[in-house]
Amino acid sequence: MRGHFITFEGGEGAGKSTQIKRLAKKLEDDGHEVVVTREPGGTTGAEAVRHVVLSGAAQPFGTELEAVLFAAARADNVRELIKPALARGAIVLCDRFMDSSRVYQGASGGVSSNMMDMLERAVTEDARPDLTLLFDLSPEEGLKRAADVWKDDGPDRYESEALAQQHIRRDAYLAIAKAEPDRCKIIDASKTLRTVSKQVDRVIDNFFAAQAVSA
Ligand code: Z5A
């Protein structure tokens, strides 16, 4: 038995966490086992790596090393949390996954596609997302929303980068969605909370309907 692996991607402040929380409750109310996780993080080891990469402590060692650290955190999350949950038949909702590495370390970080492909294959070989919701929002609006939740902590290593970098990431996400239209569905995250929720529910309903047909 295999469950369903659904990832949520997008730039800063796009509304992923808000929608994951809402959707998890809805699916649980419908009787599903739901496992929510995030990247970098999700397990004790991966949360430790999260602190290192998001504080900027690894930045002086270069983007290649950061890519390796994100991959190491992902390997732990996949092995300890995601694969066991999928094997039980659970629905796994993951806040960021492999596309974040493609976009942040690859497209905007300048790590070679050879190295990114190698890391992705090594870590996600038998745990590929069945569905990815891409929350598309202008970086200007996303950073405005994210700033509301920074409070005293301030921006992290990626949020503090120049707006031009954030535009490169948005374009890279849209290119991934174009290249993999079966897996990736674009959500217009600029809409109201209510409208975004409706878009998310429609994508999820279509996904489960398609799964039921192919079962
Ligand atoms: N990273 C990487 O470089 N490589 C990798 O492989 C991975 C990650 C996995 C993790 O950040 C960072 O790690 C990330 C990339 C890098 N870069 N950054 N920054 P994180 O986990 O700390 O944060 P995030 O993933 O960027 O999430 P976020 O900024 O918290 O955004 P969000 O989860 O998409 O949004 P939210 O928290 O749900 O909403 C933000 C605010 O907007 C909040 O006040 C909401 O109430 C509000 N909101 C939500 N929806 C709406 C709508 N529709 N209208 C108006 N306001 C809204």
Q: Can you tell me the CATH superfamily?
A: P-loop containing nucleotide triphosphate hydrolases
Largest sheet: 5 strands, parallel
Query: What is the name of the CATH class?
Result: Alpha Beta
CATH architecture: 3-Layer(aba) Sandwich
- CATH topology name: Rossmann fold
Bound molecules: ligand Z5A
Number of distinct beta strands: 5
Order of helices and strands: EHEHHEHHEHHEH
- Our estimate of the beta-strand percent is 5-15%
User: Which strand order do you get reading across the main beta sheet?
Assistant: 2-3-1-4-5
Shape: globular
Gap between N and C termini? 12 Å
What average pLDDT do the residues reach?
95
How many domains make up the coordinates? 1
Question: Radius of gyration from the CA trace?
Answer: 17 Å
- Percent helix, as a range, is 55-70%
Number of helices: 8
Structural class: alpha/beta
Instruction: Point out poorly predicted stretches.
Output: none
Description:
The protein has 8 helices and 5 strands; from the N terminus they run E-H-E-H-H-E-H-H-E-H-H-E-H. The protein is α/β, with parallel strands linked by helices and 215 residues long. It has a single domain, classed as P-loop containing nucleotide triphosphate hydrolases (Rossmann fold, 3-Layer(aba) Sandwich). Strands 2-3-1-4-5 form a 5-stranded parallel beta sheet, with helices on both faces. The chain is globular. The protein starts with a strand and ends with a helix. Bound molecules: ligand Z5A. Ligand Z5A binds next to helix 1, helix 4, helix 6 and helix 8.
